[in-house]
Structures are given as structure tokens and as C-alpha cells.
Amino acid sequence: MDLGIEIAGIKMKNPVMSASGCFGYGEEYSAFYNLEEMGALVVKGTTLEPREGNLPPRIAETPAGILNAVGLQNPGIDYVIKKELPALKGAGTPVIINIAGNLEEEYLELAKILDPLEEVQGLEVNISCPNVKQGGMAFGTDEKAAGSLVKAIRSVTSKPLIVKLSPNVTDIRGMALAVEKEGADAISLVNTFLGMAIDIHRKKPVLGNLVGGLSGPAIKPLSLRMVWQVSQEVKVPVIGMGGIMTAEDALEFIMAGARAVAVGTANFVNPYSIPEIVKGIRKFMEEHDYEDLSPLVGAAWKGV
Amino acid sequence: MAMLRKAQIIKHDREGPGIYRMDFFSPEVSSRVIPGQFIHLKIREEGYHPLLRRPFSIYDVDNERGLFSILYRVVGLGTRIMAKRQPGELMEIMGPLGAPFTLPEEKGKIILVAGGMGFAPLHFLIKKLLKRNMEAEIILGARKAEELMGENDLVQLGVNFILATEDGSRGFQGQATDLLDKKLREGNYDYLYSCGPYPMLKKVASLALSRGIKGEVSLEEIMACGVGACLGCAYPAKGDKGDLTYKKVCQHGPTFSLEEVSFHNGPGD
Fold first, then answer.
1. Dihedral sign of CA atoms B57, B59, B63, B68 in order
2. How far is B47 from chain A (nearest CA, A)?
3. What's the whole-number average pLDDT of chain B?
4. CA of A118 vs chain B CAs: smallest distance (Å)
5. CA distance B95 to chain A (A)
6. Which of A125, A271, B77, B132 has the highest CB neighbour number within 10 Å of its CB?
7. Rounded to whole angstroms, what are the CA distances from B186 to B165, B179, B180, B210?
């Protein structure tokens, strides 16, 4: 039996990846298990220059979910290349860098810097962060802007290009088709849903940033529906995420059409989430006599 | 490596209005934990509400019996569920986590200032200080007499303590910081530790630093991962060049030096 998959030329030993922003640069969770057990490691959203991030509080818990407004805090690409990536060289799992910026030039510069690096197996273009004032999300909610950004990045890198979409749009299919047309090798969806919480005693929003992105089990039915819709429209592989806590959740996404899945919020609750989900998928395949994952991908719409 | 384990609740007592002490059996934690560190507790085994773990400072450790204790106040759904847990039940704990208090290398006069539940980490610390024959005294502040915690424990330890309540129902009437101001005028102190609500810590830091007294505080912030990955519990701090930066309460803290915290940019400002 083989859990292995391939996304945009990136070979993974299983379909379970970390979701960007929920796994740092891998170091923290390597204290719990060997990162080799992951399908791929997607690191924290990285920008050209260091970013301090948003004012606290940055987290608010809501029923079965978390609102976050971290604001892309990261040490900048130079530091990441010098200090974080060397530690991941022997990680035994493909490393995918999530890149983010305000302006097109910043994305292009990042893609150019990362293009020659052997230790980077792919780029995930973040056009969906709801917590930064400029850019990011602007690219993620306009088909034309998203398409032209992807086209420009495509022209400066030969690395596999995954585009991470925002769910905060009217037509997720249109966004997916636009980035596929301009050269995305894979599409990951979804980022967090814009939301908020109010402290009734202070009569103010809980988050320092006022609004934030909702993640966790609360959004699973929404993200699952988007994976279902997009995977039937596009030819490139879809990476599904948004509230995956268990192997059963991951299998739902796979049957909805995702070739791989990413685990985010679950890591905070159970640091062993990723290896446990891998184990659960394997068990399911054994019990149902699947030799590989391909018949399961999109099984739910293939059977309708 | 395995920082996740189940621990049995051995004792669970009400200590005051909505205030509880929970004792766990876990020799792995009790033998390793250092004052200032915390555990990240999973509230319920199944279900997603509440979703996140909750961080609690260690209140006490009994190495001989393999026990450690936390002290908490019921403030929301998580602690309401916790308050119903019974001795004999298991809870999943992650930890010990975080950077502990540093202990002064030389002997000196130490003052501790606790506000409300901020007494928890300071109680564990004061036990360590006394073991090292350090001269320590503590100011305990609370809103009212029933919320003053740990008086009996302090009597047993034979440590000097002064009480302050905002409503004057016990001890000095006023804030713990009013008492601190008075103490700092009267005596020479070499080091200070404090834990409590943000406005109190801010005042404590300004009083101590204006007299050139060094010290540490233990901070609180809403946390998601507890291990430094999510950047959710960031706190404004002074960078190497005095610039504003964010440090993680879970990993760089929860203990910070007084100089390190940027008290003008806190969540309470």
C-alpha cells in the first residue's frame, strides 16, 4: 500500500502537510516527532522584509474555532534563508515556502531569491492573508489581479507554484480558474474566513487588529464545499484545508477532490495531529483495501 | 521528548469564590518543573468547544509524592468545565513549558508582589527562594478578603507577607502597588518578582525601575499552541536596539525581565 502522492512535481510520501502559519518553521514540532512523517512542510508566510505583526491580543477563541490576527509576523526572507532553512535541509520532507507581500514586486523578488535554492521544493503564493492592511488579500479577491500576479511570478521561477486562495470571495471557482490559467501548478484552499469577536465588558473588539481570520472545525463544512467546487473545475491538483482535526476529516477533503490536505489549527490542540492523521488514513485504506489514494480523490463527486 | 501526558487529578478544592486548586499526580512534571514555568492543559478529552488548551502556572510541587498543583479562577467556559472535574479523573497536559524565573546568584533582599491569581507562580518561586536561604517577603493584593489566596501556605512557610485589599476588608486598604511604594521607600531591596493584572505590573515595573531595582514579571496572554509556533501570544517588548518588538509569552516567557517588557504598548494601554 502506498500513501505517496505527487503535487506539481513535488513527491510526498503521504498527503498530509502542515498549513502555513500553524507550524512555524518546523522547529517547535520537531520536538514532538520526526518531521519525516509529514507529507510536506509548509512554513510560515514569509515576506521580503521582517514584519513585527499586529498588536495583541492576536487570538480569540470562538465556538469550535479560533480567530487570529497575527499579521504575518516573520523575520524576513534573508533571515529565513540563513537561519531557518539550513535546519530543514535534513528534515526528510519537502519544504514549501509560503511567500507574501504587499506589492507585486515583493512577490517577484521573493520568487527570484528562492528560485535557485535546492532546499526549497516549492512556493506557496499567499494571496489570502486577511490580517494585513495592504495587498495580500487584495490579490486574493480579484480574479484579474490574482491572475496577473501569478503570471508574473510564473515568469521568474521554475519552482512548483501553489496558489493559496482566500475563501472571502463570491465565486471561488472563478478565482481558481484565473490562477490556473496563468500558471499555478496547484491550488490550496482555503485560508481563514474573515470574522470578529467583541468583548462586551470593554465594548470593544477582542482582537488588537479588530478583525481576524477564523480557522478550526467551525469552518470545515465551508472549506470542504469550496474544495468540492474547485476540484471539479480545475485540472491542477487541489490541496484541501480548513478545520481538519482527524483522519476522517482529511478523508472527507480527499473524497471532495483534494489530492493532499493541510493541517493547521489542529496542531495547536494536539501537536501529534499530522502523524496521527497519516496513521488514520493508512488504517482506512487498509480496512477498505485501497492500494493507493487515487481512487479516493474526488470519490464523492465521481460517485454522484 | 514526549511532552504530552495524562495526569490524574488527586485533589480538587475550592479555595475562594470561584477559585480552585487542582493537584495532579505526575512525577515527570513535578521532578522537572521550575518556578515560572507552566503547563498547557486540555480541558476536555472529546469535542471542540472549547478548542484550545489553557495555560496555567505551577502553584506548588510536592516532589516526594510526585504532585504538582495549579490555582485557577473560573472566568469562562474552559474554567467552568474544569471546575466540575473530579479527583481520580485524568487530564492531558503538555509541559512543563516556558522560560522559568531566574534566581539571583547572590544573596540579597527580595520582594515579591502578587495581584489576585498572580500569586500562583510566585508561591512556587518563594518556596525555591527560601530553600536557598534567600531573604524574601511578599505583598499579596486582591479585590477583597475572600480572594486573598495562600495565606495559610505562607504562614506554614514562615515567610513575611503583607496583605492589601482594594475594599479594605483585610489588611491594608488599597492597591498592592501602594504598599510596594511604601516598602521601597523604607527598605533596600535587591530584586523583585511580580505577577498579576497588567495595570499592576506596569506600576510595579515603573516603581522598581525608578529605584534601579532589577526584577522579573510573569505575563499572561491568550495562547494557542503554547510552544512558539503560532505567534498568537506575542507581547510588546524592547528589542536589542530599544525598538519595539514582539516576544512570545509561551516561549520567551512567561517570565520577562522588568526592562524587557514594553509597558507603554501593552494590550491594556
1. negative
2. 8
3. 93
4. 25
5. 12
6. A125
7. 21, 11, 10, 15
**Of B61, B215, B202, which Cα lies nearest the Cα of B128?**
B61
Beta strand pairing status for A161-164 and A186-189? parallel
CA distances from B161 to A272, B184, B212 (A): 44, 15, 23
Chain A with chain B: Cβ pairs closer than 8 A: 107
Say what the pTM is: 0.95
pLDDT value of residue B1: 42
Of A82, A66, A1, A105, nearest in space to A196 by CA = A66
All domains of chain B in start order, with CATH: 3-97 (2.40.30.10), 109-265 (3.40.50.80)
What's the start-to-end Cα distance of chain B, in Å? 39
Neighbours of B142 (CB within 10 A): 27
CB contact under 8 A, A216 and B223: no
Could you write out the DSSP letters of every residue in B103-152? Answer: PPSS--EEEEEEEGGGHHHHHHHHHHHHHTT-EEEEEEEESSGGG---HH
Rg from Cα positions in chain B: 18
Residue-wise pLDDT for A192-245, tens only, equals 999 999 999 999 999 999 999 999 999 999 999 999 999 999 999 999 999 999
Whether the bond between B254 and the residue before it is cis, its omega within 30 degrees of 0, is yes
Distance CA A73, CA A176 (A): 27
Cβ within 8 Å of residue B228, ≥6 positions away: A24, A28, B248, B250, B251
In which band, very low, low, confident or very high, does the pLDDT at B264 lie, cut at 50, 70 and 90?
Answer: confident
Domains defined along chain A, listed by start: 5-296 (3.20.20.70)
Instruction: Supply B247's cell numbers.
Output: 516576544
| pLDDT for the residue numbered A132 | 57
Contact B119, B164 (CB under 8 A): no
Asked if A55 is an interface residue toward chain B (Cβ–Cβ < 8 A), one would say: yes
Return the DSSP state at B254.
B
State whether residue A202 sits within 8 Å of chain B by CB: no
Q: State whether A52 and B227 contact (CB < 8 Å).
A: no
**A56 contacts in B (CB within 8 Å)?**
221, 233-236, 246, 266-267
Judged on CB neighbours under 10 Å (0-12, 13-18, 19+), A1 is exposed
- Cell 479516493 belongs to A296
Rounded to 5°, the CA angle A130-B228-B122 comes to 120
| pLDDT tens string A269-301 | 999 999 999 999 999 999 999 999 999 999 999
Tell me if residue A22 is catalytic: no
